Amino acid sequence: MTQERTIPKLAAIAPVSREEGLMLYEDMVLGRYFEDKCAEMYYRGKMFGFVHLYNGQEAVSTGVIRAMRQGEDYVCSTYRDHVHALSAGVPARNVMAELFGKATGCSKGRGGSMHLFSAEHHLLGGYAFIGEGIPVALGAAFQSKYRREALGDASSDHVTAAFFGDGTTNNGQFFECLNMAALWKLPILFVVENNKWAIGMAHERATSQPEIFKKASVFGMPGIEVDGMDVLAVRTVAQEAVARARAGEGPTLIECLTYRFRGHSLADPDELRSKDEKEAWLARDPLKKLAAHLTAQELVKAEELKQIEQRIQAVIDEAVQFAQTSPEPDASELHRFVFAEDS
Asked: In what residue span(s) does the Dehydrogenase E1 component domain sit (predicted)?
């Protein structure tokens, strides 16, 4: 069992209204149910290739992305990108169709599970190689600042969030991009989803400084550690970081302590992690934690949450039907998008 870190406690968690609470819960349920359906389709032989699911980490995607402006701010993901796309507003049917390799997919069937993209929703892509997306996110943050300060576009106050795992923080792109972001005070959030395992390598065995948030101090930027199983805690930290970035105060490194409930991918037998470790984290399910908070605070009734779950299940079922009946990419378009196009 890997070494445990004390879960950080925030001095204060931003209050949540009934409407916000319902929105956060619905977004997390959408992510969880979508991934569960992906597993079902994969094991039934309806979905192929590498598929890396996000179960257990929903509080990170929802807490960060839903603290941003949908369709205006930018999101850059990894190979575990389905739920980031959903939180960014990409319709479930278009994400599912992409996983089925259909022309109606958000990447037109050309990307698959690890390469989701949507210009409309400012989703800058999923990336198969770790660290590959961080420079792309940095570029998006740079252009926002350049448009505002060099071109005089006062409306260009967009913020970018770059998501990546704990294993990525030992790679060169991580350090180089943190340095540039801090030097130029770029409006970017570096979001580490520390789920304790880089495929089969325990985090503590792979780095000389397991507390990733402390690496921010080298670059003179804020580094924050947060309970990645608590969407309200993640949301609070994200709101503060987004406000700093939008005000021109520069980047923030956010380390979210979280856990994936499934193996690294659906092809992973998940035999390296101990039963005790998995059960301890399963007991901290972020969906159950938020549901308990909302009902305890009498913001919602349990029946309302059940209705959300039923509605989301219908959305997922429709997404599968849409994906299954959508057309395959036409062979005549095989060479399209090899090079950039005007439209």
From this structure: 27-331
